[in-house]
Automatic annotation (TrEMBL):
Single GO molecular function: phosphopyruvate hydratase activity
Pathway(s) this gene product operates in, as recorded in its UniProt entry: Carbohydrate degradation; glycolysis; pyruvate from D-glyceraldehyde 3-phosphate: step 4/5
Protein name: Enolase
PROSITE patterns (alphabetical): ENOLASE
Positions contributing to substrate binding: 160, 170, 293, 320, 372-375, 396
UniProt source species: Thiomonas bhubaneswarensis
Family named by the database record: Belongs to the enolase family.
Keywords assigned by UniProt, alphabetized: Cytoplasm, Glycolysis, Lyase, Magnesium, Metal-binding, Secreted
Cofactor(s) recorded in Swiss-Prot or TrEMBL: Mg(2+)
Domain Enolase N-terminal: 9-139
Record keyword Nucleotide-binding present: no
InterPro entries per the UniProt record, alphabetical: Enolase (IPR000941), Enolase-like_C_sf (IPR036849), Enolase-like_N (IPR029017), Enolase_C (IPR020810), Enolase_CS (IPR020809), Enolase_N (IPR020811)
C-alpha cells in the first residue's frame, strides 16, 4: 500500500443514514489537518455468514425496529475519534491496525465492524484527496488498470426476494465476450431490457428484489430462471455462452436444514450434498453457467470440497458465507480445496487493509476474487474503486435498476473512460 509523508487526522464524525432497504447504517467523515476530507457509508447483508465481523445495532425496539446505529455513531465520535486524531491518514495499514486495537475483540463486537469500516473507508478516501489521486490509484495495492468482469444479478430469489419462486438467491449475467468494460455494461443492459420484455409478454411481474433483479413467480422456479436468461440473451441478439454467460449464487446456507438442502419453493425437493452437486452438473450441461457461488452451505466444507473436485475444472467455485473475507477461513479453503475463488465483502471483515489481505491471499494461491456489494446498499461506490485498486478481476453489484447498484457500475464506467487505452478487461473464465 502507498505510505507517504505525514498527513495527520484532525477530526472524525459520523451519522446515521438509511440503506436501500430503509434500514439505518453509518456514514463517517474523516477530516485531515490539511483540510482534505473523505466520507464513506457501510452496507449491510441479509444472507450473512455466521462468522462475519459483528454489525452492531442499538437494539432499541422503539427506534427503527431495533436496528438503529446511534451507539455505533457514538463510538466513532467518541472512542474512535479520540484514538485516531493525530495519526497519519496516509498509512492505511497503521490506521486499520489501530482501529482493531481500539476495538480489542477478535470479531469487532465491541465498537462494531460497521463503525470500524466506515472510518477505515473514509480514511482511504481522505488520503486519496490528500494525494490528489483517484481512490483506485491512491490505495496503491495492485497495478490498478484492470476493470473487473461484472456480474449483473438480473433475477432475484431466496432471502432477497421472498415472494419470488426461486430458492436460489442470484441469477447473474456475465458479459464475458465483451471487448471492454463499457461494452460489457451495454451487453448486460440490453439483455436486461430483453428479459423485462419477455417477462411482460408472459404476464409475469417485473417488480424487483433487493438487488434490483426481477423477482417473478415462474413455474419451475430455479431451472425456469436459467432458461429465461438464455432466451433473453438470444432475444437481445447475443450468443449464450459466448457473449454472455450465467453465474449463480444459490446462497445454499439459506435453504440448508438438518443436513439437507430443501428447495421448498420449487417443488419441495430435498437433496443431499451429492445430489445438489448432481443437480449443478446437470445444469452445466443445460445452461451456459461459468460460476457458482455458495453452491453448498457454509458449514458443509466436505460438500464444497466434493463440488470443487467434481466441477472445479469446468467452472468457478466461489465461497462467500464460508470464507467471510477472513484469511483464516480462506486459508482453510485453500488447504482443503473447497473452492477456486472467493467473494470479497469489506464489511464481512471490517477494515480496508484486512480486505486487501484477503484478496492478496487468494491471488497468491491462484484463486480468483469477486468484489461484492451487499443486499442492503448505499449510494457509495467504494467497491468500484476497490475492485480496480486490487486487480480483483471480477465484481458483482446487482442489477441494472436501482441507483445504489448502478452507482458502482457507473463509477467503473468513469474509471474505464479515465484509463482509456490503458484499461485492461479480461475474461477470467478462459
Ligand atoms: C450479496 C449477497 O447477499 P447479502 O449481502 O445479503 O449477504 C451475497 O450473498 O453474495
Ligand atoms: Mg453470496
Amino acid at each position: 500500500m502507498n505510505v507517504q509523508l505525514q498527513s495527520p487526522i484532525a477530526a472524525i464524525d459520523a451519522m446515521e443514514i438509511l440503506d436501500s432497504r430503509g434500514v439505518p447504517t453509518i456514514k463517517a467523515r474523516v477530516v485531515l489537518q490539511s483540510g482534505a476530507s473523505g466520507a464513506a457509508a457501510v452496507p449491510s447483508g441479509a444472507s450473512t455468514g455466521s462468522e462475519e465481523a459483528v454489525e452492531l445495532r442499538d437494539g432499541d425496539p422503539h427506534r427503527y425496529f431495533g436496528k438503529g446505529v446511534r451507539k455505533v455513531v457514538a463510538h466513532v465520535q467518541g472512542e474512535i475519534a479520540k484514538g485516531l486524531v493525530g495519526r497519519n491518514a496516509l498509512d492505511q495499514q497503521a490506521i486499520d491496525a489501530r482501529l482493531i486495537e481500539l476495538d480489542g475483540t477478535p470479531n469487532k463486537a465491541r465498537l462494531g465492524a460497521n463503525a470500524l469500516l466506515a472510518v477505515s473507508m473514509a480514511t482511504a478516501r481522505a488520503a486519496a484527496v490528500e494525494r490528489d489521486l483517484p481512490l483506485y490509484r491512491s490505495l496503491g495495492v495492485g497495478k490498478a488498470d484492470l476493470l473487473p468482469m461484472p456480474m449483473f444479478n438480473v433475477l432475484n430469489g431466496g432471502l432477497h426476494a421472498p415472494s419470488s419462486s426461486m430458492d436460489f438467491q442470484e441469477f447473474m449475467l456475465v458479459p464475458l465476450g465483451a471487448p471492454g468494460f463499457t461494452e460489457a455494461v451495454r451487453y448486460a443492459a440490453e439483455t436486461f431490457d430483453a428479459l423485462r420484455k419477455l417477462l411482460q409478454s408472459m404476464g409475469h411481474s417485473t417488480s424487483v428484489g433487493d438487488e434490483g433483479g426481477f423477482a417473478p413467480r415462474l413455474g419451475n422456479g430455479n431451472a425456469a430462471a436459467c432458461e429465461l436468461i438464455v432466451r433473453a440473451i438470444e432475444r437481445a441478439g447475443y450468443r449464450p455462452g459466448i457473449d454472455l454467460a450465467i453465474a449463480l449464487d444459490p446462497a445454499a446456507t439459506s435453504f440448508y436444514q438438518e443436513g439437507e438442502y430443501r428447495l421448498t419453493r420449487s417443488g419441495h425437493q430435498r437433496y443431499s450434498s451429492e445430489q445438489m452437486i448432481d443437480l449443478y452438473a446437470d445444469w452445466l450441461s443445460a445452461y451456459p453457467i461459468v460460476s457458482i457461488e455458495d453452491g453448498m452451505a457454509e458449514d458443509d466444507w466436505s460438500g464444497f470440497a466434493q463440488m470443487t473436485r467434481r466441477l472445479g475444472e469446468r467452472i468457478q467455485i466461489v465461497g462467500d458465507d464460508n470464507f467471510v473475507t477472513n484469511v483464516r477461513f480462506i486459508q482453510r479453503g485453500i488447504d482443503e480445496g473447497t473452492a477456486n475463488a472467493s467473494l470479497i465483502k469489506l464489511n464481512q471483515i471490517g477494515t480496508v487493509s484486512e480486505t486487501v489481505e484477503a484478496v492478496q491471499l487468494c491471488q497468491r494461491a491462484g484463486w480468483r476474487t469477486v468484489i461484492s456489494h451487499r443486499s442492503g446498499e448505499t449510494e457509495d461506490p467504494f467497491i468500484a474503486d476497490f475492485a480496480v485498486a486490487v486487480d480483483a478481476g471480477q465484481m458483482k453489484s446487482g442489477s441494472l435498476s436501482r441507483s445504489e447498484r448502478l452507482a458502482k457500475y457507473n463509477r467503473l464506467l468513469e474509471i474505464d473512460a479515465e484509463l482509456g487505452e490503458r484499461a485492461r478487461f479480461v475474461n477470467p473464465y478462459r
